Automatic annotation (TrEMBL):
<keyword id="KW-0285">Flavoprotein</keyword>
<dbReference type="GO" id="GO:0004458">
    <property type="term" value="F:D-lactate dehydrogenase (cytochrome) activity"/>
</dbReference>
<dbReference type="InterPro" id="IPR016166">
    <property type="entry name" value="FAD-bd_PCMH"/>
</dbReference>
<feature type="domain" description="FAD-binding PCMH-type">
    <location>
        <begin position="20"/>
        <end position="199"/>
    </location>
</feature>
<dbReference type="GO" id="GO:0008720">
    <property type="term" value="F:D-lactate dehydrogenase (NAD+) activity"/>
</dbReference>
<dbReference type="GO" id="GO:0005739">
    <property type="term" value="C:mitochondrion"/>
</dbReference>
<protein>
    <recommendedName>
        <fullName>D-lactate dehydrogenase (cytochrome)</fullName>
        <ecNumber>1.1.2.4</ecNumber>
    </recommendedName>
</protein>
<comment type="similarity">
    <text>Belongs to the FAD-binding oxidoreductase/transferase type 4 family.</text>
</comment>
<dbReference type="InterPro" id="IPR006094">
    <property type="entry name" value="Oxid_FAD_bind_N"/>
</dbReference>
<dbReference type="InterPro" id="IPR004113">
    <property type="entry name" value="FAD-bd_oxidored_4_C"/>
</dbReference>
<keyword id="KW-0560">Oxidoreductase</keyword>
<dbReference type="InterPro" id="IPR036318">
    <property type="entry name" value="FAD-bd_PCMH-like_sf"/>
</dbReference>
<dbReference type="InterPro" id="IPR016169">
    <property type="entry name" value="FAD-bd_PCMH_sub2"/>
</dbReference>
<dbReference type="Pfam" id="PF02913">
    <property type="entry name" value="FAD-oxidase_C"/>
</dbReference>
<dbReference type="GO" id="GO:1903457">
    <property type="term" value="P:lactate catabolic process"/>
</dbReference>
<keyword id="KW-0274">FAD</keyword>
<dbReference type="Pfam" id="PF01565">
    <property type="entry name" value="FAD_binding_4"/>
</dbReference>
Length: 371
């Protein structure tokens, strides 16, 4: 347990949030399910609120409540079991999804957990917040079919498992989905059985468009071709400008990197990942070129990459977007991140409206997101 001021501040506030800071009473670091049960029963008896805390990576900056006890999953971050033949894994809530995938790789398995929110996100938080990520186009979100069951400590201290490991269960309500996205209000998630996906070869494409509307419409059209799209991300011209400036700053420190870092046209740009066999990806890349041209993209500006280093260079624009925007905004500036979701057919209208309102308000508001 910790009552240190610095720990309370970390768990009660976020640099991304517009909510006032609300430090909890204490931070509890349980090491077992039994520890969690004890905490829940004591807090239930004293009528003290409990707020679980995982990686702290949420865009909307979920934080503790004043007067609450914060349960941090730091010491419950293990892989409990891997069932390679069944394609599933049982894990504790504090495990980061990147660490899970690194563990699977170390075992020599061509399997991975595909839901990928922000770096550092932990499985418990991903379940509790219904997390998503760049791979949602192909694999869906935490509310899809990749969470098979959950181990949950209820407010009474009772421990339940929401269902078996079997892929199919048609009897009764789906208790697993009841807890996904519940944000700790129905119980504390202390374990999860996750479905794994085959690890397929990928390629990356980068396509600039004359307008955001063209880019979003092209993404919609590409998905309708049936191409094996794993990710499709939109960065508007304001974000591209920040990324180019960030690359220039890096290049000043490393001349060798200067020759390699891609400089992007100052246009709204789609970053696309395809997954599948060589034949599948070749056909997908051909479809993308056709669709892009039909929505005003210059075929000569479309870039494809299959080698690991080249893919990393192209995709780095998406990975560094937040930090590049902060750097571009200038010293002393803070960032307020927010997240919205609409039907894909409404996305061009949404982006147009957001850009108009931020411009009218004199706010620097670059846009990045999943299409």
């Amino acid at each position: 347990m910790s009552t240190k001021v610095e720990d309370l501040e970390v768990h009660g506030a976020s640099p991304w949030s517009y909510h006032p800071a609300a430090p909890p009473l204490a931070i509890i670091y349980p090491a077992s399910v039994e520890d969690v049960v004890d905490v829940v029963r004591i807090c239930s008896h004293t009528r003290t609120p409990i707020v679980p805390y995982a990686g702290g990576t949420s865009l909307e900056a979920h934080a503790a409540l004043q007067g609450a006890v914060c349960v941090d999953w730091r010491d419950m971050a293990s892989v409990i079991s891997v069932n390679a033949e069944d394609g599933d894994v049982h894990v504790q809530p504090g495990l980061r999804y990147e660490d899970l995938n690194a563990h699977l790789k170390s075992l020599g398995l061509q399997l991975f957990f595909p839901v990928d929110p922000g770096p550092g996100a932990q499985i418990g938080g991903m379940c509790a917040s219904g997390g998503s990520g760049t791979n949602a186009v192909r694999y869906g979100t935490m509310k899809g079919d990749y969470v098979l069951s959950l181990d949950v400590v209820l407010a009474s201290g009772e421990v339940i498992r929401t269902r078996s490991r079997a892929r199919k269960s048609s009897a009764g309500p789906d208790l697993t989905k009841l807890f996904l996205g519940s944000e700790g209000t129905l119980g504390l998630i202390v374990g999860a059985t996750l479905r794994l996906a085959p690890l397929l070869p990928i390629s990356v494409a980068c396509v600039p468009f004359p307008s955001v509307e063209n880019a979003v419409s092209a993404a919609h059209a590409l998905l309708n071709t049936g191409a094996n799209v794993q990710c499709v991300e939109l960065l508007d011209e304001a974000m591209i400008r920040a990324i180019n400036a960030d690359d220039d700053d890096d290049d000043d420190d490393d001349e060798q990197q200067a020759a390699a870092a891609p400089h992007h046209p100052l246009e709204p740009t789609l970053f696309v990942k395809f997954a599948g066999t060589d034949a599948h990806r070749t056909e997908d890349e051909r479809l993308l070129s056709i669709v892009a041209s039909s929505y005003g993209a210059n075929r000569g500006a479309v870039r494809f990459a299959r080698k690991e280093a080249e893919m990393e260079e192209l995709w780095s624009a998406r990975k560094q977007a937040l930090w590049a925007a902060l750097e571009f905004a200038g010293e002393g500036k803070r960032c307020w991140t927010t997240d919205v979701c609409v039907p894909i057919s409404k996305l061009p209208q949404l982006v147009k409206r957001v850009k108009q309102e931020t411009n009218d308000a004199g706010i620097y508001g670059p846009i990045v997101g999943h299409v």
